[in-house]
Task: inverse folding
């Protein structure tokens, strides 16, 4: 059975080099998919292409098998939540939420009923007659969501909807949004550059890099089994080392060892240990880097240390305080290393 | 300055303020005196007798003043309607569509202001005479619009540019056709700027003299023309009263405009 929303070989270029290059993505009914990438990678362009604000050069966008790639935005049945909320300041909360229903020529009392339903759903009861300019950021966010959900869209499109909110409000809304999405069972595509947001909110994540989807998968899969150095780096394994994997399963750094295969190793700073300097060498179990603590940063739960070791610099998390300039070694368990061929692109 | 004692500085500042106030309000005061003067001749510094005789004369049913006030307002209303009819589509296009000659188009609307007025009006009068527009309300409206359009188009373009495009996208996204989106979102949000531009055009038309003189006389008599005639005839009372009448809408509307023309719209003028 084909997917509910299916994007096939979509290419978009604003008359220059492609912003999206033959992107394909399938979204199942009721699924929330996060498009994750750094700014300028094309994730917002993909979302806007689904909404109809960007006309693709080639490729298809299918909703239940129907190609909508060249329909005007109003004929697509998608609903978008904008980064700036894009609430209409000259309308009340109720008028904002009811707008899409008026466009669909609903009867007046049906619209009123639906608005009440939405206000209740979003815990905005009694706010209907307020002007949207009187609302807080979090409340505006809810109104924007209510306005999008009111029309029961085929697909809900979210363009970094949390980026203008305070951290605390953002955390709250994130869980609320996820619970709501699962309860209504709406299909949603969520654009974000925040990996934590992508991990907590979505059923699947599509990581985008310079106009291409580089990996798609469940959050756990993307987090633990990145298929490229880019995804590993983006998902927080930002310590990168060139290693030589010798025949007996041991590691070596630098060019000291001849033979063996060269690999690019990534690991998370909290997966490594900082140990007192010793003569210990790398084993089959652990990679040991000898070095010196170059910088220490207090991060609340312990410290992060920048350690200069064997010609490379790595960040290590440790609970105890170590003075800068102290010789130390960094121990990385074999299982925490993500290895990629050396020609793969660094983050 | 800092070497001067503070009292001297205070006096100096007060003096400058007084001069400024006199420069602004002095002529107006003179106008007020003349409007209520019954008899005032040289070498007296003040009118010999105050009264309302001339006000009665201006407002009497047979007087030209009320008729020309009516003509002035009617012409101003038509000029506003004409200017907005051009400025709304033009301003929207200039603000939203990626027109290749944007700057040049905005400049074209500025041209009637940049070129000396008289030669232009003499030419217009000649052309209008040939096509029978001289001495008609329509002719005067067109001349006023040539002036009003620059304000109307520039401000309308700024007003549309200050409407966030995502607000329009949200409307299209929820099912509005381009026209419905314009009607329900863009136009209402640009309205304060459009009202401000309408007021400017209205006032500009109400005060306009030169163009009206060349194109309208003798069939169309607006308030400024009446004032001119009264002044030329030495009837300072009538001309002062007319001038005061002309001040009322100017001051009133300026207060309104000040409320409507927000900084975000002003920031977009000429962009």
Result:
């Amino acid at each position: 059975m084909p997917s509910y929303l299916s994007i096939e070989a979509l290419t978009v270029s604003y008359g220059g080099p492609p912003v999206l290059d033959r992107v394909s993505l399938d979204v199942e009914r009721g699924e929330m998919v996060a498009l994750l990438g750094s700014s300028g990678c094309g994730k917002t362009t993909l979302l806007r292409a689904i909404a109809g604000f960007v006309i693709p050069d080639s490729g298809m966008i299918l909703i239940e098998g129907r190609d909508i790639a060249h329909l005007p935005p109003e004929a697509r049945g998608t609903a978008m939540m904008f980064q700036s909320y894009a609430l209409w300041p000259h309308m009340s909360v109720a008028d904002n939420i009811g707008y899409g229903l008026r466009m669909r020529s609903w009867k007046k009392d049906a619209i009123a009923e639906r608005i009440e339903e939405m206000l209740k759903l979003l815990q905005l009861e009694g706010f209907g007659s307020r002007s949207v300019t009187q609302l807080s950021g979090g409340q505006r966010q809810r109104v924007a969501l209510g306005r999008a959900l009111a029309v029961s869209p085929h697909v809900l499109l979210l363009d970094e909807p949390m980026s203008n909110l305070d951290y605390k409000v953002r955390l709250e809304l994130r869980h609320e949004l996820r619970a709501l999405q699962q309860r209504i069972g709406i299909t949603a595509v969520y654009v974000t550059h925040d990996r934590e947001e992508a991990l907590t909110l979505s059923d699947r994540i599509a990581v985008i890099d310079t106009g291409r989807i580089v990996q798609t998968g469940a959050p756990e899969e993307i987090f633990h089994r990145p298929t490229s150095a880019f995804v590993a780096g983006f998902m927080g394994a930002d310590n990168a080392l060139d290693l030589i994997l010798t025949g007996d399963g041991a590691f070596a750094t630098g060019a000291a060892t001849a033979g063996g295969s060269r690999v690019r190793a990534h690991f998370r700073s909290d997966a490594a240990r900082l140990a007192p300097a010793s003569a210990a060498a790398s084993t089959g179990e652990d990679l040991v880097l000898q070095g010196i603590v170059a910088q220490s940063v207090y991060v609340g739960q312990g410290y992060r240390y920048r350690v200069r070791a064997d010609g490379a610099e790595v960040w290590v998390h440790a609970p105890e305080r170590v003075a800068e300039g102290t010789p130390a070694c960094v121990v990385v368990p074999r299982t925490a290393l993500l290895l990629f061929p050396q020609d793969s692109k660094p983050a | 300055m800092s070497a001067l004692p503070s009292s001297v500085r205070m006096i100096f500042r007060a003096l400058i303020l007084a001069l400024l106030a006199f420069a602004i309000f002095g002529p107006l005061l003179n106008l007020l005196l003349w409007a209520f003067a019954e008899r005032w001749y040289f070498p007296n510094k003040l009118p010999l007798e105050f009264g309302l005789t001339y006000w009665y004369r201006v407002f009497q049913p047979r007087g030209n003043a009320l008729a020309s006030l009516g003509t002035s307002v009617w012409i101003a209303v038509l000029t506003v309607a004409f200017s907005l009819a051009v400025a709304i589509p033009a301003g929207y296009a200039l603000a939203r569509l990626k027109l290749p000659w944007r700057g040049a188009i905005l400049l074209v609307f500025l041209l009637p202001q940049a070129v000396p007025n008289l030669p232009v009006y003499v030419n217009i009068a000649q052309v209008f005479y040939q096509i029978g527009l001289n001495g008609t309300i329509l002719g005067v409206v067109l001349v006023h619009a040539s002036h009003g359009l620059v304000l109307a188009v520039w401000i309308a373009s700024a007003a549309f540019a200050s409407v966030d495009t995502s607000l329009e996208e949200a409307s299209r996204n929820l099912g509005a056709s381009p026209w419905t989106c314009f009607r329900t979102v863009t136009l209402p949000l640009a309205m304060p700027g459009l009202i401000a531009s309408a007021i400017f055009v209205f006032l500009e038309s109400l005060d306009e003299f030169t163009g009206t003189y060349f194109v309208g006389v003798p069939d169309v008599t607006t308030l400024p023309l009446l004032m001119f005639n009264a002044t030329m005839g030495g009837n300072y009372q009538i001309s002062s009263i007319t001038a005061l009448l002309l001040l009322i809408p100017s001051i009133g509307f300026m207060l309104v405009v000040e409320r409507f023309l927000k900084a975000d719209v002003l920031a977009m003028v000429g962009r």
User: Anything to note?
Assistant: Chain B has a mean pLDDT of 85. The CA atoms of residues 40 and 46 of chain B lie 7 Å apart. Residues 64-96 of chain B form the longest helix (33 residues). The two ends of chain B are 41 Å apart (CA to CA).
